[in-house]
Specification:
Two copies of one chain form a homodimer.
Chain A lengths: L6 H8 L3 H9 L7 E2 L5 E2 L2 H15 L4 H11 L7 H34 L9 H7 L13
Chain A binds a DNA duplex (30 and 30 nucleotides) through α2.
DNA sequence: TATAATTCCTGTAGTCACTAGAGCTTCAAG
DNA sequence: CTTGAAGCTCTAGTGACTACAGGAATTATA
């Protein structure tokens, strides 16, 4: 006899939300569960497993689309692992880039804050710093 | 005599996009520019400055709402700097948390990939890892 | 067992910060 | 003067949810 969950219990057990679960069902990530006599969803352990898989992958920053690919892959257990590997590798690359970028931001915010003389807005280095381009290469020189 | 830009030139000079500029105008972050006889937007250096301010702040991860607050602040130059300071400080805190979180993800993805035996999907550690909760505290124990 | 409180249902709309497209007008180069 | 690029407005789409309205079903309490 399997455990059977209401959507609320499944949300609580998995650490997600009722609305999110219904959303994952609507976009086809979670299979449609059985319904009881009163039309309420009744989930099994299989649903729990699938949901935890999705939540982990989301936590790791994978897009819904990447997760869909992984789920498709796992329904072909004879295929080589290469594609799943590739998805994880791309994600790792992405995460590393995000870290590098955020560290630059951290440094710039630290500088911005340490420069601030705590006077009035007119002298505020926070605003001033944002208004200028120090080492930034995004724009051309101001066109004066 | 001031430089005057078309929206396309402003986009190119600032490193943003035409649509983004119109969007910032629509939500009230950029003041409405003058129009020429043919109803086309004509921007001045003031607009360029404001746009660069916004783009920098967005690059630093500030929300549109935080930027709006900073702009409001800067129109009251006599107020103390404290509020602007606080916005930057909160943002720094946020960036640091994001870095910490991403580093955990990086480690988990590295582990996932190094475990992968490159066999078939059935043995794929990438998928397996996502399906389990190793050290994760998000959910309760599986309810079997 | 009756009622009250909670949970669940569907469907729609809202969020954020843009981005893309349709269908038209205006501008600039040759 | 023609032609093609750039501009205009307005609407809808994106991703990944989140929130609400207005009911129906279930569960807890008296």
């Amino acid at each position: 006899m399997e455990h059977v969950f209401s959507i609320g219990k499944l949300a609580a057990a998995s650490g997600s939300k009722v609305e999110t679960i219904r959303y994952y069902e609507a976009i086809g990530l979670l299979p449609e569960p059985e319904r009881n006599a009163g039309n309420q969803r009744r989930y099994s352990a299989r649903h729990y497993d699938r949901l935890v898989f999705i939540l982990h992958a989301r936590d790791l920053g994978l897009s819904i689309d990447a997760i869909r690919q992984l789920i498709d892959l796992s329904s072909h257990p004879d295929m080589p692992c290469h594609d799943a590997d590739e998805i994880a590798r791309r994600q790792l690359e992405d995460v590393r880039q995000r870290i590098a970028r955020l560290k630059l931001l951290e440094a710039e915010l630290e500088r911005t804050l340490s420069d601030c003389s705590h006077g009035t807005i007119a002298e505020c280095k926070v605003i001033e710093t944002l208004a200028q381009c120090g080492a930034c290469e995004r724009h051309q020189r101001p066109p004066r």
